[in-house]
Design brief:
By secondary structure, the chain is an alpha/beta fold. It is built from 14 helices and 14 strands. The strands form three sheets. Strands 11-10-6-5-3-1-14-12-13 form a nine-stranded parallel beta sheet, sandwiched between helices. Strands 7-9-8 form a three-stranded antiparallel beta sheet, with helices on one face. Strands 2-4 form a two-stranded antiparallel sheet. It is globular and about 75 Å long. The mean pLDDT is about 95.
C-alpha cells in the first residue's frame, strides 16, 4: 500500500532577514547541521536548491532580474560535489538537485560526463544504495545560461526566443539522457526539432515568426520551422561507461507535456511540481504520465512528482493550541513580507495573503489536518522549513516536531 512520503528541501539562500545576513561559512554549517538531522529523523531525500552565477553581480548590469534582492538566491552551484560530502556525513538519506541547470556550465555533454563520473565514484562505497535524485531544468534566470552562449543568434530566434529556449532545453535533454544511457551519438542523431503554431500562445506572434522564417532556407519547412541546433558535434561517448544508473533517479523541471514525453522516450523521468502549480495541472500530469512514463521505471506513481510544501509550525510549550497557531501564522506572514520586500521592494497585501494561504502554518494538529486536506495520501512532499529563516535551531526544532509529532498524526488521519 502506498503512503505519503516526506522529503526535505534546503535552499541555502543567503539573503538578509531582519537585518541579518549570515556569512557563507555559517550558511554551509547550518546546511550540514540540518541535513545530518534530516537523515537521523528519517526524511527520504534532501533536495538542495541549485543556482549559478551571482545575483548580486548581475544587478550591476542593465536588466537586473532581482534588483532589490540583497544576498544570493542560493550558494550551491554543484550538487555533485555537495552530494559526496552529504553522503559522507549521513547513513540513509538520498540527495537531490532542485534544480540543476543543464544549459550552463558546458551544456548537456558536460553534465552527462560529470553525472556518470559521480555515480561511478559514489558506487565505490561498499553496499551503497543511496540515490542521486537529479532534478534538471533550463534554469530560473536567463543570465545564467546567456554567459554560456545560449542566446538568440539571429532575428528569427530573437523574435521567437520564448519558444526557442524551450527547444534548446529539449535538445539538451535528449542529448544528456542519451549519453547517460550509454549511447554513442553525434548531435544529428537526436533528430530534428521544430517550431509549430501550437508552440506559440499568441497566434499573431507565430505569424510574424513564420513570415520571417520564410526568408531562411535552412529552417523553412512549410507549416513548421526547423530549430537550428545549439550543440553541434561528431560522434562521442561519455565515460565512465559502467556508471551504475540504478543509483540515479531523474526528474525534469518542465510542465511542457512534449518535453516530458521526449525525456521518457529515453529514460524514466519524473516531473517537478512548483508550489504555485494549479491542482488541475498536477492531476492532468499524473493522468498523462501513467501512460507516457518510461517502462523501465515501472508503473507511474504519485511519488514521481515531488510537491513543494512550505511549512511553518509552532509547538511552544506553555502556549495554548490557539496561541501556537497564531504564532505560526505570524511567522509565515513575516517570512512572506520579507521575501516580497527583498524581491520587489514593495508590499502587495494580496500577494502576501495569497502566499500565506498557499503555505501550511499552525500548531502541530492544524498542520497535520491541512496536509491531509491539501494533498493526496500517496503524494511525495518536499517540506521546506528554512524559507526566509536563518534561525538554525528553530528550523531543526520544526523538523523534529514534524517527523516526531505531525507525521504519526497524519498516518492516524489517513488510516
Amino acid at each position: 500500500m502506498l503512503v505519503m512520503k516526506y522529503d526535505i528541501f534546503l535552499s541555502i539562500c543567503q539573503t538578509e532577514v531582519d537585518g541579518y545576513l549570515p556569512s557563507e561559512k555559517i550558511m554551509w554549517n547550518n546546511f550540514f547541521d540540518q541535513v545530518r538531522l534530516a537523515d537521523t529523523l528519517g526524511f527520504e531525500t534532501a533536495w538542495v536548491a541549485e543556482t549559478h552565477l551571482s545575483c548580486q553581480v548581475q544587478k550591476e548590469n542593465p536588466g537586473a532580474v532581482i534588483p532589490h534582492f540583497k544576498g544570493e538566491i542560493g550558494l550551491n552551484t554543484d550538487i555533485l560535489q555537495l552530494a559526496h560530502l552529504v553522503f559522507g556525513q549521513t547513513k540513509n538519506i538520498n540527495v537531490g538537485s532542485a534544480i540543476r541547470n543543464i544549459l550552463c556550465n558546458g551544456g548537456p555533454l558536460a553534465h552527462a560526463e560529470a553525472i556518470k563520473t559521480f555515480l561511478s565514484l559514489h558506487a565505490l562505497r561498499t553496499n551503497e544504495k543511496r540515490i542521486l535524485e537529479l532534478g534538471f531544468a533550463a534554469g530560473r534566470f536567463p543570465f545564467s545560461y546567456h554567459a554560456y552562449g545560449i542566446r538568440p543568434r539571429d532575428p528569427v530566434e530573437e523574435l521567437a526566443w520564448e519558444v526557442i529556449k524551450n527547444k534548446v532545453f529539449q535538445e539538451a535533454t535528449l542529448l544528456m539522457l542519451r549519453l547517460l544511457r550509454g549511447d554513442k551519438i553525434a548531435s544529428k542523431d537526436i533528430g530534428p526539432l521544430y517550431l509549430r503554431k501550437e508552440d506559440f500562445r499568441d497566434p499573431s506572434q507565430w505569424e510574424k515568426v513564420h513570415n520571417l522564417a520564410k526568408e531562411d532556407r535552412k529552417r523553412w519547412d512549410g507549416d513548421k520551422i526547423l530549430h537550428l541546433p545549439f550543440f553541434v558535434f561528431d560522434k562521442v561517448g561519455v565515460v565512465p561507461f559502467e556508471a551504475p544508473l540504478e543509483l540515479l533517479r531523474l526528474t525534469i523541471g518542465s510542465h511542457d507535456p512534449e518535453t516530458q514525453r521526449l525525456a521518457n522516450q529515453i529514460l524514466p523521468t519524473g516531473v517537478f511540481n512548483l508550489s504555485i502549480t494549479p491542482p488541475e495541472v498536477i492531476e492532468e500530469t499524473h493522468r498523462r504520465m501513467s501512460t507516457e512514463f518510461h517502462p523501465a521505471g515501472g508503473a507511474w506513481t504519485r511519488s514521481n512528482m515531488p510537491r513543494t510544501a512550505l511549512i511553518f509550525i509552532d509547538a511552544t510549550e506553555g502556549l495554548s493550541a490557539e496561541q501556537q497557531s497564531q504564532k505560526a501564522r505570524e511567522q509565515s506572514k513575516k517570512a512572506w513580507q520579507n521575501y516580497w520586500l527583498a524581491m520587489e521592494k514593495t508590499l502587495d497585501p494580496k500577494k502576501v495573503e495569497g502566499a500565506v494561504e498557499n503555505s501550511i502554518a499552525g500548531n502541530p494538529e492544524e498542520v497535520a489536518q491541512a496536509i491531509v486536506k491539501k494533498y493526496h495520501r500517496d503524494d511525495r512532499l518536499m517540506l521546506w522549513f528554512d524559507f526566509n529563516n536563518h534561525d538554525n535551531e528553530q528550523i531543526k526544532e520544526n523538523m523534529k516536531v514534524f517527523m516526531e509529532i505531525i507525521k504519526p498524526r497524519i498516518q492516524e488521519l489517513l488510516a
